[in-house]
């Protein structure tokens, strides 16, 4: 068999291992905690008492991670091209969760138990090309990583709704991803014609033109105009039971690129990264104008008005001033924004002053460099436009991301 001269290295890898993680156990999760301030009725007299606020669980254990990885490393063309690829399955078990118990038991808080199981699986790949042509050398590398996250077991405590803010909700549901947003689906805004014709649903109150059109997920919910005479308006009402999974903040894949160029005493490097398939949820001042007397934003200029009765305006009718109307503040996909992006995180240009020059100054080496951070961002969102796509879900306003440019000197004697 003749040697394959253009292959410099070929390695197949396979590994399996387990490890524990104790960070999932809080300092006092296994203790019984008592709480004062509750009153009891003794002989028609209110008496101050103490209740068991947290039941003990001395059997709490570590979270366990089992990781299977199959990989390939390949170097070809005199090591000018390198490829590394991995397929992994990561099973996490004994995740600490608050187990749902009926309030009739008298237990205030859900006890912590090692219940949850989550599976992450995906593919990672990186490609690097490097070469030198005379005084010019370069290296270019790119990487991509996919990840499919799935909750596989909640031990009967399915559909666990968690607070992600004042009104933003996540849900833990078997078969779905961690970070799944749980809210109402929408279909634009109501028009005046729909209101006049009774083609609307009630959600606490009847909507007005420009209000969000929430879409029921239950069967049999009717428009108000379709109710029979004397039929209850409950049959035309949106409820919390119409909430469903409307998005997630876990990306489908991430990617990045590294660039390094060198020519004589000059060097240029850049690093960029991006994500795809993810959303971010905003609330309060971030999306609602005049919330807690906050200033409106440029984003709110796209709102529905009588002069702009656009049924697909990104911002619904505003209720400003002293109005406390909550109709458009129910958590829905109207508060989710596409947070896919690609960003040049860092870029640096450097120049090494020749040694025959700096030696005359009594200096061993002198390098001048100019560095920039977050200089350029491509973003998928075309609605709000002015938030940092790396922002976390919540109410805090994070601007486009701090850009910085720095000039520096590395000096050695």
Overview of the structural elements:
The protein is 2% helix and 47% strand. The model has no long low-confidence stretch (mean pLDDT 88). Strands 1, 4, 5, 6, 7, 8, 15, 16, 19, 20 and 21 form an eleven-stranded antiparallel sheet that branches. Strands 9-10-11-14 form a four-stranded antiparallel sheet, with no helix packed on it. The chain has 413 residues and is an all-beta fold. The chain has two helices and 21 strands.
Percent of residues in helices comes to under 10%
Helix/sheet category: mainly beta
Residue-averaged pLDDT, rounded?
Answer: 88
Sheet with most strands: 11 strands, antiparallel
H/E series: EEEEEEEEEEEEHEEEEEEEHEE
Gross morphology is extended
Radius of gyration: 29 Å
Query: What is the percentage of strand-forming residues?
Result: over 45%
Would you report the number of β strands? Answer: 21
Number of helices: 2
Low-confidence stretches: none
Terminal Cα separation, in Å? Answer: 57 Å
Outline of the structure:
With 413 residues, the protein is mainly β.
Q: SSE layout and pairings?
A:
Blueprint: E1 7-21, E2 33-42, E3 45-54, E4 63-76, E5 81-98, E6 112-133, E7 136-146, E8 148-153, E9 160-163, E10 169-172, E11 180-183, E12 185-189, H1 192-197, E13 212-215, E14 244-248, E15 253-263, E16 266-276, E17 279-281, E18 336-338, E19 341-352, H2 355-358, E20 365-379, E21 404-412
Antiparallel strand pairs: 1-4, 2-3, 4-5, 5-6, 6-7, 6-8, 7-15, 9-10, 10-11, 11-14, 12-13, 15-16, 16-19, 17-18, 19-20, 20-21
């Amino acid at each position: 068999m003749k040697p394959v001269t253009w292959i410099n290295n070929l390695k197949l890898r396979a590994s399996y291992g387990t490890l524990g993680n104790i960070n999932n156990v809080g300092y006092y999760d296994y203790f019984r905690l008592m709480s004062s301030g509750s009153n009891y009725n003794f002989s028609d007299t209110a008496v101050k008492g103490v209740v068991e606020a947290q039941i003990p669980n001395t059997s709490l254990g570590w979270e366990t991670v089992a990781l299977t990885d199959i990989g390939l490393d390949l170097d070809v063309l005199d090591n000018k091209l390198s490829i590394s690829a991995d397929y992994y399955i990561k099973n996490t078990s004994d995740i600490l969760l608050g187990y749902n118990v009926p309030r009739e038991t008298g237990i205030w808080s859900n006890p912590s138990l090692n219940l949850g199981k989550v599976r992450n699986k995906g593919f990672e790949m990186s490609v690097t090309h490097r070469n030198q042509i005379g005084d010019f050398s370069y290296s270019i590398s790119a990487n991509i990583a996919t990840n499919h996250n799935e909750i596989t077991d909640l031990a009967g405590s399915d559909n666990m709704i968690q607070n992600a803010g004042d009104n933003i909700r996540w849900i833990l549901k078997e078969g779905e991803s961690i970070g799944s947003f749980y809210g109402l689906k929408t279909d634009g805004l109501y028009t005046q014609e729909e209101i006049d014709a009774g083609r609307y649903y009630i959600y606490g109150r009847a909507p007005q033109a420009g209000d969000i059109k929430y879409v029921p997920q239950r069967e049999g919910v009717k428009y108000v105009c379709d109710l029979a005479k004397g039929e209850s308006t409950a049959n035309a009402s949106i409820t919390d039971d119409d909430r469903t999974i409307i998005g997630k903040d876990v990306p489908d894949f991430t990617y990045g690129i590294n660039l390094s160029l060198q020519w004589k005493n000059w060097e240029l490097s850049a690093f960029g990264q991006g994500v795809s398939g993810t959303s971010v949820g905003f609330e309060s001042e971030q999306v609602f104008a005049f919330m807690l007397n906050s200033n409106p934003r440029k984003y709110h200029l796209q709102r529905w008005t009588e002069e702009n009765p656009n049924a697909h305006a990104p911002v619904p009718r505003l209720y400003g001033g002293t109005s406390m109307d909550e109709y458009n503040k129910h958590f829905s996909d109207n508060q989710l924004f596409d947070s896919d992006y690609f960003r040049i995180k860092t870029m640096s240009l450097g120049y090494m002053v020749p040694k025959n020059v700096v030696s005359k100054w009594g200096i061993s080496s002198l390098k001048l460099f100019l560095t920039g951070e977050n200089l350029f961002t491509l973003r998928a969102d075309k609605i709000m436009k002015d938030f940092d796509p790396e922002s976390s879900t919540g109410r805090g306003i994070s601007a486009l991301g701090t850009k910085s440019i720095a000039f520096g000197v590395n000096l050695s004697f």
